[in-house]
Amino acid sequence: MTPVEQNAVLTQTGPGTPLGNVFRRYWIPALLSGELGKTPVRSKILSEDMWATRDESGKVMFRTRQVPNIELGAVYQESWVPVLLSEDLPDIDCAPVRVQIGEEKLIAFRDTSGRIGLIDQFCAHRRVSLFFGRNEENGIRCPYHGWKFDVNGKCMEVPSEGENSKTCERVQLKYYRTVETGGVIFAFIGAETELPALHFTPELVPAAVNEYPAIEVGDVVWVYMGPADKMPKAPEFEWATVPAAHRYINYRVQRSNWLQAMEGGIDSSHVSSLHSGELHKDPLHHGKGASNQADKAPKFEVAPSPAGLLIGAKRKTAEGNAYWRISQYIFPSSTMIPPYGEHPLHGHNWVPVDDSTCLAWNFSHTPHRPLSDEEIHTMDNYGSIYAELIPGTHDTVQNESNDWLIDREKQKSGRYYSGIKGIAMQDASLQESMAGENGIVDRTKERLVTTDIAIVQARRKLMATAQALAAGDESALAGLDPVSHHIRPASFEAAYDTTLEVAADKIIAGATAPESI
To answer: What SS3 class is residue 250?
Structure first.
């Protein structure tokens, strides 16, 4: 059982929180390099809403999205509403943006002349959302039948009615007047008699806008959100330093707090149950090791390491030997999964978005050879640790709204032990289901057992580190030195009386093939 106060420390990572301060001392994976072009990309990490931008030199920077505090005075407080940052509409004729004021759904756009329009989101013809509209030639055009509206909601064209039609004279969408000042777009929502002037400039009290540096390593954009004088060296995880043809990377959104996700990554005992239907079916989990999972009561040994924790799970084989599965916990939120056979090594980084959501980064690599076509095909088709995503998003097709597509017949047959298809979603579905208030597990109601020793040790290490850093002691920050990243997970057989020390020479990263069965 974890007390309420400790659970709050372990799960809250926003600005100024003890564990948030710990996370901010590390490079955090935020985006895939391929996602960031000339257009800014929105990102949310550690409860900070940001834009990522790449300048002409290729340099990447993250900047928080904070609307300035506004001192309008009594006359204007109920009339002028900040609706967007100027950077939300970065260019003339750029993509329109949805806005909601109260219950009103609106669309904002910057026209060819640079004017800001804020009009009814839905076309006057058949009520199609103008989110799909073509922003062109000083108006936004509905793609359904081509009706076009200007920044004042006036209908400009109805192509199907011909040039002599008077339809446009009778059509007017609701609109709000706007002003743009101080990097903020305001909408005037008061009655016209209250404020007839269109050139009102409110007095702004600029908010602190944080800018965070970024680097690109291993086809990933990493952001550093801590003190500038404490910035660590770039990460050197093996997956990030091998040639591009040797690695496979993506990420998905998980609707749970980061901690319950990360704890699943260091819990080797659940594999014998939850993933039992996949061990002989998934193409990247074949191997002798899959047969050694029959022992459902592994003996755990956990030891501190320069990176975080070294976690060993020992199972007894049919021949009476020890089948060791060695996981790595790299501080503060990265995990490495013991491999099977000749297949790629896998790992995760569980990045807090806010206290109820995280990004599950997934990494696969082969240090000594390029990934094979079969391996890439399997991962492209949602095998191994990968899940099917809704096109254009990082959200999973299987989710709470559809009960993660549970299949009770295949649950009964044992094909999917929990009824959920795929290793990734077998984990994610259960971790999302654990969510209590605000997506966080109520750990006061847990009943941990001996096989949860790695979870207990990880929580203790996180608590101790947060407390030490708050007291000014930085020595507890494991995994800051990139040399500590030169490690691997492993799986192997040894005499049953061996201890975790037997793994010492099998977990060092390098050009050789991994230790795996």
So the answer is: strand
At 282 the three-state DSSP class reads: coil
CATH of domain 69-205: 2.102.10.10
> How far apart are alpha carbons 307 and 465 in whole angstroms?
13
User: What are the start and end residues of each CATH 2.102.10.10 domain in the chain?
Assistant: 69-205
Predicted confidence (pLDDT) per residue in 3-20, tens digit:
999 999 999 999 999 999
Would the CA dihedral through 93, 96, 102, 104 be positive or negative? Answer: positive
CATH T-level topology, domain 233-506 = Naphthalene 1,2-dioxygenase Alpha Subunit; Chain A, domain 1 (3.90.380)
pLDDT over 50 at 85, yes or no: yes
Q: Report how far residue 389's alpha carbon sits from residue 219's, in angstroms, rounded to the nearest whole number.
A: 20
Q: Any idea which architecture 28-66+208-231 has in CATH?
A: Single Sheet (2.20)
Band (pLDDT 50/70/90 cuts) for residue 193 is: low
pLDDT in tens, 258-305: 999 999 999 988 988 999 898 888 999 877 777 777 788 899 999 999
Q: How many beta carbons lie within 10 A of that of residue 38, not counting itself?
A: 10
- Burial (0-12, 13-18, 19+ Cβ within 10 Å), 440: buried
Q: Yes or no: say if 180 and 202 are a contact pair by the CB < 8 Å rule.
A: no
